[in-house]
């Protein structure tokens, strides 16, 4: 039953005609809530569907991309080996303009933190370069980097950047590379 409801929600979320940001957010949140209640293969199938929607080069509506990213992030929790899917979800979650301190949506903040815990140090360093990784999102990424590196960067990206080489992180000055939906799909097809 949860799988059928999730398919209906995903279809509505993927509909390019749907542009109401509140409805998109509600659809994404409902889909994410169903993630843990689905059959074992269903999360992989739903993640593929969401990654396919994110792969569309014609999609430019940031509300849709954000909602698709948040829904994908919820499924990534159930797919710890879906490395590229995690990065794709996170890059789209960061389109949310409210990543400043005191943002209202606790669920989104918690989901962002969970996603960061599943990433490796090199991936978090790359995420830190994203232009929308600001405010609270930047602090969450830096906190996770501090935890994984067992160093205190004081919440300062500049301090992390200065120490990146000693952590084995190469090319910290290279521009950020946006995650590929194609890489995520290829990875999900192997699960």
Taking the sheet with the most strands, its summary is:
none
Shape: globular
Strand proportion:
under 5%
Mean pLDDT: 86
Number of strands: 0
Instruction: Report the total helices.
Output: 10
Structural class from helices and strands?
Answer: mainly alpha
What is the succession of H and E elements?
HHHHHHHHHH
Report the radius of gyration as a whole number of Å. 16 Å
Helical fraction: 55-70%
Q: Total domains, how many? A: 1
Unreliable parts = none
Distance between the termini: 23 Å
Please, could you describe this protein's structure?
- By secondary structure, the chain is mainly α.
- The protein has one domain (2-190).
- 63% of the residues lie in helices and 0% in strands.
- The protein is built from 10 helices and no strands.
- It has helices at 2-14, 21-34, 42-55, 62-76, 83-93, 106-117, 121-129, 135-149, 157-163, 181-190.
- It starts with a helix and ends with a helix.
- The model has no long low-confidence stretch (mean pLDDT 86).
């Amino acid at each position: 039953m949860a799988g059928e409801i999730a398919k209906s929600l995903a279809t509505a979320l993927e509909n390019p005609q749907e542009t109401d940001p509140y409805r998109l957010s509600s659809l994404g949140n409902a889909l994410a809530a169903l993630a843990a209640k689905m059959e074992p293969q269903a999360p992989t199938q739903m993640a593929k569907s969401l990654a396919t929607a994110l792969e569309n080069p014609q999609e430019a509506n940031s509300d849709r991309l954000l909602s698709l990213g948040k829904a994908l992030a919820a499924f990534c929790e159930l797919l710890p080996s879906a490395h590229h899917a995690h990065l794709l979800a996170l890059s789209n979650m960061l389109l949310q303009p409210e990543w400043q301190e005191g943002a209202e949506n606790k669920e989104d903040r918690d989901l962002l933190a969970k996603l960061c815990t599943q990433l490796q140090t090199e991936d978090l360093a790359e995420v830190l370069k994203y232009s929308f990784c600001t405010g609270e999102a930047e602090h969450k990424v830096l906190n996770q980097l501090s935890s994984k590196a067992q160093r205190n960067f004081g919440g300062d990206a500049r301090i992390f950047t200065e120490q990146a080489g000693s952590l084995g992180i190469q090319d910290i000055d290279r521009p950020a590379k946006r995650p590929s939906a194609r890489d995520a799909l290829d990875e999900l097809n192997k699960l």
